[in-house]
């Protein structure tokens, strides 16, 4: 899995690469700028497009200057450069790249105050004003300039990070950022790109390698990493010769009430499709006809039979989807917690724990909690930012000895040691009720098949989003049933 670094570590990676690969810092900037242009070409292929590049005086601005030269060399005929001279200091690499442009007689426009910004007519704006060197919220002329550029409503592509947007740390509500349609980011995404608040600064990002030393990056001690397809290829085991239903575990899902039986069926269906050898569903008796009609492969366990003598045969137990929070459901949850086996808890199981926090103390080590933001805050208190929410999740995972799957567009899987795996698969087509129920069924399935709690959560989250991404190639919206029908095919693709 790819390590995600904070900006201090990124600077160490820069320095290490420069020292060990014996390259100059300005050559690394050249490599970064070339990588930017390669990605930019995909985005803006029309070479006659008019482009304004706004360059600050740090290395982000230095990138902007090098990008101007490389774009011109690549045949872009309408490139203009605006030098944002708000600071007296300039970096050495900036100075070198400015000289290279001046030597080409490249037209340069000085912007010495925010009021100097001319009425930009260019179709595309490249933001190279401030990058990861940002050390405070924007104010003064930078703030005015960013507000003026935002008011233009042009297509903006930012170099590495949008001006004013902090790479890490809590995102302040009052923060003003240059609004980019796309960020072309160097070597690794910034941690803050994964939080919903980042939508104020960027619609999407793409990451380009710039030649930093990967071994150094992977050896950095970071609590964050990304899960990608190749990580699963080694992890997900193919079905074995001479295997039988007993080889792949027996999952129990405790879910559903009269009005939300569908949630239980969706979870069980997903569990089945992800390969559990046997799946049993515990629902109210009134759901039996639906179960037998819709999911003939799934067995039934009466709610009265949720006792150790009947449940010790299961290799994984999940509870919560559509369970309700009435007295009867609380009794079911309390009974499950007494079993002293790791549980996968979602939806109403989490809501009940939020209502009765003392239940959290009864969780067995190795359990998995799968809250979305609202459920998370109900469990652990309100948060002003996702950064703080993730910090709490890391503390709670460690304290409770459980895996926390904090769900959103990007889902954070926090293991028992507080390390965070970020899942990037999934899309807005999946924003439909029942999606979380499917995820719970998938986690239960992989846990039943013998994967650790963290492995089961990582495989399930990746697979869930990946199946959704495949369906989104031909569908606008994806129902939970659509997704369930796809997971086995997607899984096959991951094993290959
Ligand atoms: N070897 C390198 O150093 C490389 C650097 N690269 C680029 O370098 C960028 C980082 O460059 P720098 O560290 O020079 O910093 P920036 O160019 O991001 O910022 C320049 C300076 O602005 C000042 N500043 C920070 N926050 C401010 C604020 N709120 N208001 C006013 N001034 C503020 C700081 O003194 C900072 O040093 C990256 O984002 C990336 O674009 C890339 O070229 C890759 C290689
Ligand atoms: N825009 C999106 N991008 C990626 N994944 C999404 C998106 N919207 C929803 N999902 C995924 O769908 C699931 C929704 O879970 P949840 O809110 O618990 O749904 P429900 O309670 O309806 O079953 C999560 O796994 C989430 O990551």
How would you characterize the overall build of this protein?
The structure is a single chain. The protein has 496 residues and is α/β, with parallel strands linked by helices. The chain has 2 domains: 2-222, YjeF N-terminal domain (Rossmann fold, 3-Layer(aba) Sandwich); 229-495, Ribokinase (UDP-N-acetylmuramoyl-L-alanine:D-glutamate ligase). 41% of the residues lie in helices and 16% in strands. The chain is built from 17 helices and 18 strands. It has helices at 7-20, 25-43, 59-73, 92-103, 140-152, 214-219, 229-235, 261-273, 288-294, 308-311, 327-338, 347-355, 373-380, 386-400, 435-448, 453-472, 480-495; strands spanning 2-4, 50-55, 78-84, 108-111, 124-128, 155-159, 180-186, 202-208, 224-227, 250-254, 278-282, 299-300, 316-319, 343-345, 368-369, 403-406, 411-414, 420-423. The strands form 2 sheets. It has an 11-stranded mixed β-sheet with strand order 1-9-18-17-16-15-14-13-10-11-12, sandwiched between helices. The chain has a 7-stranded parallel β-sheet with strand order 4-3-2-5-6-7-8. Helix 4 links the parallel strand 3 and strand 4. Helix 2 (25-43) crosses helix 3, helix 3 (59-73) packs parallel to helix 4 (92-103) and helix 8 packs across helix 15. The longest helix is centred in the last third of the chain and has 20 residues, at 453-472. The radius of gyration is 26 Å and the shape is elongated. Ligand NAX binds at residues 14, 25, 28-29, 32, 56, 58-61, 63, 87, 91, 130-136, 138, 142, 159-161, 186, 210. Adenosine-5'-diphosphate (ADP) is lined by residues 347, 372, 407-409, 411, 426-428, 430-431, 433-437, 439, 464-465.
